[in-house]
């Protein structure tokens, strides 16, 4: 016999089957799910939304993920690498505009020049902000030693999406070679956690070959791994990538969007005190997508503060929003949007994952 949504939501823990049922909710059940997840968010997290100013400083990437628009194999990308001064200027902008933290993201590289450059940048950002800006980095798979070095230079959060916790699916969306190994991804996540980073992961939703069971397992994986932060968003096909050939097998964009909201809502109920980012990819489908995610469970937003000239070249997927807005416009528009979603911005605060704090005390 299937359970009612009310019965499932009363449980302390969800099974894979429960989660699948929640993800497949009818329109009426979805309302109940979202009401519950917003209540939990308000109770455990409150209405504060924290900014992470996002600097996508380079699209040079040595990897070839089959879904990603800036993969090494895509010859049609204008490659860029923003000079350190410009990056520091963007960091200063974030600091002056009362952002509590920033995120440095780029394509993946692990050569010594790159590793040393990041170390320097981290130290300089700390010093220009009087040690106040929190720094999240999202720079892919690196050796344990590199992760440690960057931690020692001042980064304290790391985002590394698992993309899919199902190894077979992971292998279908990545080239089959040692540079794209599921085990390596997993061991990187473990190293990050061991070093003491607030560790973030996430998945794409609506990938070709992905099932509801896979998505339920992704949420169970996050819980089991005791992750501190999550960013997950809809998969959006890019015409210059190998996965584009499966575009006719995908769920329509609107369904991918709804499913992402449901994933966020279920995760908020399962992991009450973690930080959940409202993914930019949501806004690529619905102009108010990120605000909708904030209402039902997310509490982090990442305004793009990359110098405008290069934004159009960091297209992991197509139809990416805000690529011609200056950072200033982005902040103003964000404030209005958050107020609309009944949220309040936690200016000058790090907005650390409460979950991480508790994990440290154990
Ligand atoms: N659609 C949606 N998200 C994507 N990412 C990469 N390519 C796409 C795409 N086509 C996500 C991956 C990666 C993050 C930086 O962007 O999950 O980890
Ligand atoms: Fe750059 Fe996947 S294509 S890390």
TrEMBL record:
An annotated Gene Ontology molecular function: transferase activity
Binding site for (3R)-3-methyl-D-ornithine: 138
Entry-linked Gene3D superfamilies: Aldolase class I
Cofactor(s) needed: [4Fe-4S] cluster
Pfam families (UniProt xref): Radical_SAM
Domain Radical SAM core span(s) in chain numbering: 47-277
Positions annotated to bind [4Fe-4S] cluster: 61, 65, 68
Entry binding sites for S-adenosyl-L-methionine: 163, 185
Keyword Iron appears in the UniProt entry: yes
Record keywords: 4Fe-4S, Iron, Iron-sulfur, Metal-binding, S-adenosyl-L-methionine
Source domain of life: Bacteria
Keyword Cytoplasm appears in the UniProt entry: no
Cofactor: how bound: Binds 1 [4Fe-4S] cluster. The cluster is coordinated with 3 cysteines and an exchangeable S-adenosyl-L-methionine.
PANTHER family recorded: 3-METHYLORNITHINE SYNTHASE, BIOTIN SYNTHASE
Designated name of the protein: [FeFe] hydrogenase H-cluster radical SAM maturase HydE
């Amino acid at each position: 016999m299937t359970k009612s949504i009310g019965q499932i939501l009363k449980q302390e823990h969800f099974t894979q089957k429960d989660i699948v049922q929640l993800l497949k909710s009818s329109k009426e059940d979805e309302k109940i799910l979202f009401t519950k997840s917003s209540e939990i968010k308000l109770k455990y997290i409150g209405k504060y939304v924290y900014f992470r100013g996002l600097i996508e400083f380079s699209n040079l990437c040595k990897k070839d993920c089959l879904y990603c628009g800036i993969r090494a194999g895509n010859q049609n990308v204008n490659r860029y690498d923003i000079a350190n001064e410009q990056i520091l200027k963007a960091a200063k902008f974030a600091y002056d505009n009362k952002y509590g933290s920033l995120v440095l993201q780029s394509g993946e590289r692990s050569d010594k020049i790159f590793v040393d450059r990041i170390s320097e940048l981290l130290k300089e950002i700390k010093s220009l902000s009087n040690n106040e800006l929190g720094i999240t980095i999202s720079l892919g798979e690196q050796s344990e030693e590199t992760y440690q070095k960057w931690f020692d230079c001042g980064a304290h959060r790391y985002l590394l999406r698992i993309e899919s916790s199902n190894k077979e699916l992971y292998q279908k969306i990545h080239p089959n070679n040692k540079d794209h190994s599921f085990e390596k991804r997993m061991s990187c996540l473990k190293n990050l956690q061991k070093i003491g980073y607030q560790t973030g992961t996430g998945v794409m939703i609506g990938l070709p070959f992905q099932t509801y069971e896979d998505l339920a397992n992704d949420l169970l994986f996050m819980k089991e791994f005791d992750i501190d932060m999550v960013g997950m968003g809809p998969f959006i096909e890019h015409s210059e990538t190998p996965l584009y050939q499966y575009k006719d097998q995908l769920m329509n964009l609107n369904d991918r969007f709804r499913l992402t909201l449901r994933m966020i809502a279920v995760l908020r109920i399962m992991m009450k005190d973690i930080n959940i980012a409202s993914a930019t990819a949501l806004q690529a489908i619905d102009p108010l997508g990120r605000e909708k995610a904030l209402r039902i469970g997310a509490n982090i937003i990442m305004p793009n503060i990359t110098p405008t000239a290069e934004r159009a070249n960091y297209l992991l997927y197509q139809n990416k929003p805000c690529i011609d807005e200056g950072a200033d416009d982005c902040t103003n528009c964000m404030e209005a949007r958050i107020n609309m979603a009944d949220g309040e911005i936690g200016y000058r605060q790090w907005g650390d994952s409460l979950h991480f704090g508790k994990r440290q005390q154990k």
